[in-house]
């Protein structure tokens, strides 16, 4: 007797695969809940030391644990603010420690502005450059 070969349609294949796919999904959920049980071992013992813990209980404890441990506390805010203040102070001290360099840059900038004003007078652009050289200092930019 020859074996019979059945050709399955798309719907029939889906019907046959659905229980297998559903079992894989349930297994994955159960593995994750078991991992949460291991991670939350101390919290589980504190809340329910002798009884069997249901999956829903494990999920609720995980949610409570995450809520209580991920909210920013006042201490972390204070620490961040203090660190920001320290970095700002360090930056300002570095800037104050370099007055000679800043004076050299300003001198170079003034020389450049006066040279441009001489050139501008020759080309007729005296309004814009003259205002720079008549007391207003152009901002020094390192770029």
TrEMBL record:
Protein name as annotated: Transcription factor HES-5
Query: Out of the domains of life, which is the source?
Result: Eukaryota
Protein function: Transcriptional repressor of genes that require a bHLH protein for their transcription. Plays an important role as neurogenesis negative regulator.
* Limits of the BHLH domain: 13-69
Q: How does it assemble?
A: Transcription repression requires formation of a complex with a corepressor protein of the Groucho/TLE family.
Its main localization is nucleus
This protein's GO cellular component annotations are: nucleus
Could you state one GO biological process linked to this protein?
A: cell differentiation
Which key words are in the record? Answer: Developmental protein, Differentiation, DNA-binding, Neurogenesis, Nucleus, Repressor, Transcription, Transcription regulation
The record's subcellular location field reads: Nucleus
Q: Which InterPro entries match?
A: bHLH_dom (IPR011598), HES_HEY (IPR050370), HLH_DNA-bd_sf (IPR036638)
- UniProt organism field: Cyprinus carpio (Common carp)
Record-linked Pfam families: HLH
Record GO terms (molecular function): DNA binding; protein dimerization activity
